[in-house]
Design brief:
Elements: H1 12-21, E1 25-28, E2 31-32, H2 37-49, E3 56-64, E4 67-75, H3 82-87, H4 97-111, E5 124-125, E6 136-139, E7 161-162, E8 166-171, E9 175-180, E10 183-187, E11 190-193, H5 200-210, E12 215-222, H6 226-232, H7 243-251, E13 256-259, E14 266-268, E15 273-280, E16 285-287, E17 290-291, E18 297-298, E19 301-314, E20 320-322, H8 334-347, E21 351-355, E22 363-368, H9 373-386, E23 392-396, H10 405-415, E24 422-429, E25 442-449, H11 452-459, H12 467-474, H13 478-485
Parallel strand pairs: 1-3, 2-3, 4-20, 5-13, 22-23, 23-25
Antiparallel strand pairs: 3-4, 6-19, 7-10, 8-9, 8-12, 10-11, 11-19, 12-15, 13-14, 15-19, 16-19, 17-18, 21-22, 24-25
Length: 490
């Protein structure tokens, strides 16, 4: 396969072209989302293939709001684990999903410098004729958000939503913030925006209010390259750091940017669509409900920010990705895991790596070296409290592949005793979308020690060896020989 079909990709279209070349997607025609056919199809796709093996979906024609959109919508853009490696420029041929994902995480860990900092490259301003997002310019009095393929994903959602938009805020003092938040299409020129309390976007807007501002200029960017979008939708960048600079550093070249038409905010020049607008900082409206990442209907927000649209610019025939929130994996996660691995290795010499599967929100699998049970519990508690998503933190031995759910569940079932190897934390910060929370943003959590040492310390006896371990010790080259001999089947 040609190197041009490997990342990093300059645009969403380059990425989609590569997916076609690698046969990683399927094309679906005549989908009626007004009857929720696209949503139903994604559910059945995941049911058949599983989250990490389901192909990307191209909706060649999809009906939404009574309008037939052609080649304007995609789904499950980052579901397959192979895509993590592809987006980072790693070959994926003949690799298992677990192997390709691990290679992607390894690349991220090597990319971060010795001090734990992400290398950065400042964005580069280009002229309008080199910015595809300026191919079509729509003025305020001509704006109609319903003329674009923003879908209502679930019957319970309060209308059509943007769920793959990167909201960009800029200020001379505060810098730039890029974050992904759910955005409700409220009417043809108004969008509800939902940065949760204490999220970076919320902090940024509060700081602007403290400066005495009554409005904030903003841009919602849709259809960027996969790395830029994934950094927008993750917590890789700390508050005050520039996601576009980090994305440039990871891609090895500057993100090309262009100024908006109605404000001074800079946006990725190769994006599919840009919505420019103004956020009142003193006025609020209700927003939601919306089907959230846990797979349950998220509550209506009584008071939320909203954006009054001033202009839209876009590529010819813009492609609007839909995340199908709560069904598919929403972004590349190797950058998140790679950065957390570096962070916790610096903090704990016993820590090896972690994995929190977005398809099973709340779980966090932590691989550690052999340590006393008390120390293992201490490490698990600190990690659990520091990661809001880690409601169920499971400590595992070095021999367990934390990216293989079968191995994880087998280890829990065979190495964990609930009465002596569990620790409950009654109150800690949690994700606001967790439907089981007693109080929004707060909840309990559990640390499960599924390592051999937890049993050995109590029994005073060595934990039995696994059959596969004995086989590998007796015949260390066997598995490689089997893979070579029966390659056509394996």
């Amino acid at each position: 396969m040609s190197e041009r079909h490997l990342g990093p990709f300059k645009s969403l279209r380059d990425y989609l072209h590569a997916l076609n070349q690698h046969n990683l997607g399927i094309h679906i025609n005549n989908v009626n989302q007004d009857k929720y056919e696209a949503t139903g199809f994604i559910y059945k796709l995941i049911e058949k293939y599983g989250v990490i093996n389901s192909p990307v979906v191209f909706f060649d024609q999809i009906k939404s709001g009574g309008i037939d959109f052609k080649n304007a919508s995609t789904g499950n853009l980052f579901g397959k684990w192979n895509l993590e490696a592809l987006a980072l420029g790693l070959p994926i041929k003949d690799l298992s999903p677990q192997k390709s994902y691990q290679l992607a995480v390894n690349k991220i860990e090597k990319h971060i410098d010795k001090e734990g900092k992400w290398p950065t490259i400042k964005p580069e301003l280009v002229s309008p004729n080199l910015a595809p997002c300026k191919e079509i310019i729509i003025n305020e009095n001509e704006v109609d958000l319903f003329q674009f393929a923003f879908l209502q994903t679930n019957p319970g959602d309060n209308g059509h939503y943007i769920n793959t938009g990167s909201i960009i805020l800029e200020d001379e003092e505060l810098g730039r913030n890029v974050g992904t938040y759910r955005c409700q299409i409220k009417d043809s020129r108004k969008i509800g925006i939902n940065p949760q309390v204490n999220q970076d976007g919320w902090k940024f807007l509060q700081k602007l209010k403290e400066q005495g501002r009554t409005t904030a200029q903003a841009a919602i960017v849709l259809g960027t390259d996969p790395i830029t979008f994934s950094l927008s939708g993750s917590k890789v960048a700390k508050y005050g750091e520039d996601e576009l600079e980090i994305a440039g550093g990871l891609m090895g070249e500057a993100i090309e940017i262009i100024k908006c038409e109605t404000n001074d905010i800079s946006v990725p020049a190769h994006a599919e669509l840009i919505i420019e607008g103004e956020i009142p900082l003193e006025d609020f409206e209700s927003e939601g409900p919306f089907g959230e990442m846990y797979g349950y209907l998220g509550a209506e927000q009584e008071k939320n920010f909203f954006l009054n649209v001033k202009s839209i610019t876009h590529r010819n025939n813009p492609i609007i990705p839909n995340q199908f929130t709560g069904i598919t994996r929403g972004c590349l996660t190797a950058p998140i895991e790679g950065s957390l691995n570096r962070r916790f290795r610096e903090q704990f010499r016993e820590f090896i790596s972690l994995h929190y599967p977005l398809e099973y929100p709340g779980f966090c699998f932590v691989k550690i070296k052999s340590v006393k049970a008390a120390r293992a519990s201490e490490i698990g508690e600190i990690i659990s409290i520091s990661l809001k998503i880690a409601k169920i933190t499971i400590l595992l031995d070095e021999d367990v592949d934390i990216h293989n759910l079968s191995e994880v569940l087998h280890a829990i079932g065979s190495r964990w005793q609930p009465s002596r190897s569990s620790k409950l934390i009654k109150d800690a910060n949690g994700l606001s979308g967790d439907p089981s929370s007693i109080k929004k943003g707060r909840g309990s959590r559990i640390i499960i020690n599924a390592t051999r040492n937890a049993t050995e310390e109590v029994n005073g006896q060595t934990f039995p060896k696994m059959n596969i371990q004995i086989l590998k010790e007796e015949s260390p080259d066997l598995m490689d020989k089997i893979e070579s001999k029966f390659k056509e089947f394996l």
